[in-house]
Amino acid sequence: MRIAISSERPILESKVGHRLGTSPYLIIIDLETMAFETLENPGATSGSGMQAVALAIDQKVDAVLTGYCSPAAERYLEEYNIQVETGIKGIVSEVIEEYRQTQFGGLRPSATKARKAPRKDVSEALSKTARQFGKMLPILISIVLLMGLFKAFISKELLLSIFGGNKILDTIWGACFGSILPGNPINSYIIGGEMLENGVNLFAVTAFMMTWVSVGLIQLPAEMVALGRRFSIMRNFISFIVSIGVAIVAVLTLNLIGG
Fold first, then answer.
1. Is residue 105 within 8 Å of 20, Cβ to Cβ?
2. Are 1 and 30 in contact (CB under 8 A)?
3. pTM of this prediction exceeds 0.85
4. Which of these, 33, 50, 130, 190, is most buried using a 10 Å CB contact count?
5. Domain 2-114 homologous superfamily, CATH
6. Cα separation of 245 and 239, whole Å?
7. How many CA atoms lie within 13 A of 52 on its CB side?
8. Where are the beta strands (DSSP E) in 10-127?
9. 2-7 and 63-65 strand pairing
10. Which of 230, 243, 162, 258 is nearest to 201 (CA)?
11. Cβ within 8 Å of residue 57, ≥6 positions away
């Protein structure tokens, strides 16, 4: 049985990585022979969690152990019959030994977790709060930067030269721009609001926001590795077409309701 475990350093005495997608390393271990190899996680620098998923699938592991794995990534792994164990903490070597002792049946609450004293509950809660704030901070910073960059480099004249007022063409252009790079939904609200203020019609803005969160050409190579070339291309294509349709229907419905 082969397992992959996220790790902060390329050694067995390292701490287990908090997030599968952004942990610097994946340690691949054969539990029968205890032979292991350490692989750098390309997603740690690119910010694409799907690259870690693709790496685990490519290594043909039977299970992935980590602190946190997004629901989407967990679903992809399970489609390849890869067991996912989350909430894992501690030293990699100790986690591996505990996993072996359960005869590959999954982790049980570790002795370390069982020995946690109630007085540590507060510090644990504060630690989780700090981590959550740390996750939100890049989003808040990106919002401020996006607003500044948009105002500095995207002029009203440039937008109006691209979005000429034709509802169908503008909707397609909006969907095309949103498809290039998938991003956080909050950022799409900021960019969409700036587009509206500069005279871009609601059809284009809605299509942009739809494809921003559902289509991603930049991440397409990693998605093809994880899910297959045909599926990935079809998913992005269908999402693109559906986004245009939903944008048109949504705006027309809003106009009807608004009288």
1. no
2. yes
3. no
4. 50
5. Dinitrogenase iron-molybdenum cofactor biosynthesis domain (3.30.420.130)
6. 10
7. 34
8. 25-30, 36-40, 63-65, 83-85
9. parallel
10. 162
11. 76, 77, 80, 82, 225, 226
| Three-state DSSP string of 131-158 | HHHHHHHHHHHHHHHHHHHHHHHCCHHH
Residue 249 is predicted with a pLDDT of 93
Asked if residue 128 has pLDDT above 90, the reply is no
Let me know: does 207 contact 243? Beta carbons within 8 Å: yes
pLDDT tens for each residue of 143-178: 566 556 655 666 777 777 888 888 889 999 989 988
For residue range 7-63, list pLDDT tens digits in order.
999 999 999 998 888 899 999 999 888 899 999 988 777 656 688 888 899 899 999
Residues 158-180: b if buried by 16+ CB within 10 A, e if exposed: ebeeebeeeeeebbbbbbbbbbe
Domains of the chain by residue range:
2-114, 116-153, 155-257
Read off the tokens for 1: 């049985």
Q: Give the separation between CA 175 and CA 182, rounded to whole angstroms.
A: 12
C-alpha closest to that of 142 among 247, 47, 216, 236: 47
Q: Which letter, b or e, does each residue of 82-115 get, where b requires 16 or more Cβ atoms within 10 Å of its Cβ?
A: bbbbeebeebbbebbebbeeeeeeebeeeeeeee
d(CA 233, CA 231): 6
Per the structure block, which two tokens stand in for 59? Answer: 């290594």
pLDDT (0 to 100) of residue 115: 38
